[in-house]
Structures are given as C-alpha cells and as structure tokens.
Design brief:
Largest sheet: 7 strands, mixed
Oligomer: single chain
Radius of gyration: 21 Å
Strand content: 15-25%
Structural class: alpha/beta
Number of helices: 9
Helix content: 25-40%
Shape: globular
Number of strands: 14
CATH architecture of the largest domain: 3-Layer(aba) Sandwich
Number of domains: 2
Distance between the termini: 24 Å
Strand order of the largest sheet: 2-10-9-8-5-3-4
C-alpha cells in the first residue's frame, strides 16, 4: 500500500533525495567510502558545502552582504544564540505559538524583551495584526509558520528594526525578499533535510555590536570565518540538503514550488470548508499552507479515533494533531505530492459518507 506522509517533522523528503543520499551512504562519489565515514575536511566534501551555499543564495535570491551557515543544535539553540549575538538592550517578539514563546523566553536572559502582540488567549488560532514595533529595539522576531496551530505569515513584513525570522517549517515554500530580514534561521527537518543541521542566513553588518563576551562556539562570526567548518558539521544532513536544493531548482524554483503549495492547500481547505463533518481550526486569513489543522464538528467528535484508524488503513501517516490542539494535522510540505492530498480528501469524503 502506498503511504502518504503527512508527518509534521521530521517529515517527507523528495524520493530522489532519499535515494541519492542512500547511495552516498553506501558509496560516496564512487570513492569506496561511505559519506558517513569521510572527513568533513575531505577535498570532495568541501564542494558539497560550497554548492549548498550557492544554491541557497540562488533559490532565495539572497543579496550581497549575507552569510549562509550550516550549524548544529536545531532552531532551539538559535533561540539563545540569536540574542547572545544581537540583543544589546531590548528586543521585540511576536508571540504566535509554542516556538515563538520559547524563543521569547530565551531572549529574556540577555536583555529587555517586549511582546508586541500575542494570540495566546485564542489558542494561537490567528496571527496578531495592528501592533507597533518599538523603533528602539535591537531586532523584531517572528515565527513565520506555526506548525502546531496551522497559522502562517505569507508576506514579508516591513520592520523599522532588523527583522529576524524562524522559518523552520516554511523555508523554500515560497519566494522570500531576504533583503527585508536581518536574519532567517531554522531547523532543516521540514522542507530541507533530515534532522541534524540548522541553517542561518545572517546579515553580516549586524554582528559584532554587542558589548558582552560571546563564547567562541556561539559567535556567528566564528562560523562565517570558518565556512561552517569550525567544528565537525553534520555531514550527512548537509549532503541531503544539497540534494533537496537541487530538486527545488529542478522543480522550477520557488515560484513554481509556491504554486504547487497553493494548489495543495486549496484542495484540502476546500474539502474541509465544504464538509459536514470536519472544520478548520485557524482563522481563514491566517491559514498555513504547510500545516493544515482541522477537527471534527462537535456532533462528530466521538468519531475522531475511528477516522484516524480509517485513514491509517488507507495509507495516511502522521495525521494526528498535536496534543495541545487535538484533532488532525496534515503537513503538506514541498515534497508531498498533490496526489497524496487528493487521497486524503477522498478518504475524508468516504468516511463522511459512511458515517
């Protein structure tokens, strides 16, 4: 039976990326060694990093003056590494979900933190609007896609201070005006690579301005100077990331990828909105294309476990919603084909007809 992978992360990767990475695990570039056992200093690995950086810059049209880094520790380490490097006196945060709240909490250890707006009172079902960003803040932090609650910022906002974005779950899902950001970061395990590598795109001129001592390993300038090779990088995930970047380019780049993502999201949201049994949880104007969250209407909630069992029997994987929200979550990342979304819609329609 064909499996349809709706896992929220680690999540689906393009099949050709998996196959190429698997081959490299067996024999890297016909060298007789696995990529798992080569040195990161090997002459045939440096080009992997260089090409990955070049494709990052090409696909996102990154302007001059920005560095692309591959680090460890996940986005969660960036929650403290970011303020360590950039927060001198005050930072502003938009609280749109669990990960935004965690980032805000870590920043408080380094200076004053202003929560400009929050949707916590509504269980994060919308993206706050109409807030003001303090012009004396060192930076303004946003989380562009909220995987647990299914909300997403789909436009690059204009900020009077350096804009910092956690794009762990929607990077490469649409074109981004990088020039509007001081830094973009994220864990790779959604749209880029297996877990184990973190990407950082940072504007060089923002660095080196705080008065505190920054430990060597936590200083972005260390990793810029050493080309992400200050310590042993996660070699396998970087290789897989390169294969994904090549795949994205072969799909027609981010303009085409966004069209594909819009088509998938439209298909599933239309099915939810036209259903007598299911209902979406996020405000319509803030709905995520990456993580589509829905529940059963009150009169059908006793059937949630039955639907999950039925969907599993049809090959659906990873549909159970986050424990803090319940219901269902269909993560429709770049690598998920529209055929899988159609299969889910058919599954929902069949279950509704039978019940």
């Amino acid at each position: 039976m064909k499996k349809h992978n709706f896992n929220a992360g680690p999540s689906i990767l393009p099949r050709e990326v998996i196959e190429k990475t698997a081959q490299a695990v067996l024999d890297f570039e016909n060298d007789g060694l696995s990529i798992l056992e080569i040195s990161h200093r090997a002459k045939n690995f440096q080009p992997i990093v260089d090409e990955a950086v070049a494709l990052f810059k090409e696909l996102l049209n990154i302007p001059e003056g920005y560095s692309v880094l591959f680090l460890g520790g996940g986005a969660s380490l960036q929650f403290c590494m970011l303020p360590f490097n950039l927060l001198e006196k005050k930072a502003a945060y938009l609280n749109t979900g669990v990960w935004a709240k965690k980032a805000l909490k870590e920043a408080k250890a380094f200076g004053e933190v202003v929560e400009v707006a929050s949707s916590a009172d509504a269980n994060y079902t919308f993206i706050p609007k109409g807030y003001s960003i303090p012009t004396d803040a060192d930076y303004f932090h946003i989380t562009t896609n909220n995987t647990i609650y299914g909300t997403e910022l789909l436009e690059d906002i204009t900020s009077p201070v350096p804009l910092i974005a956690d794009m762990s779950s929607d990077i490469f899902s649409r074109p981004v005006d990088v020039s509007k950001y001081g830094m973009i970061y994220g864990g790779a395990q959604k749209n880029l690579a297996p877990a184990g590598v973190t990407f950082v795109i940072v504007k060089d001129e923002l660095l080196g301005k705080v008065s505190r001592y920054i430990p060597t390993m936590l200083d972005y300038r260390t990793h810029i100077k050493e080309g992400s090779m200050f310590n042993t990088p996660p070699v396998l995930p970087i290789y897989a990331a390169l294969q994904t970047l090549k795949w994205l380019k072969s799909q027609g780049g981010l303009v085409q990828v966004e069209k594909n993502n819009i088509a998938k999201a439209t298909l599933l949201y239309n099915a939810i909105d036209n259903s007598k049994m299911f209902v979406g949880t996020a405000n319509k104007e803030d709905r995520s294309r990456m993580n589509i969250c829905f529940v059963m209407k009150p009169e059908f909630q006793h059937l949630e476990a039955d639907f999950l069992k039925f969907a599993t029997s049809k090959g659906m994987v990873g549909l159970k919603g986050h424990r803090s929200v319940g219901g269902f979550r269909a993560s429709c990342y770049n690598a998920l084909p529209i055929e899988s979304v159609q299969a889910l819609v058919d599954c929902m329609n069949e279950f509704e007809t039978n019940n």
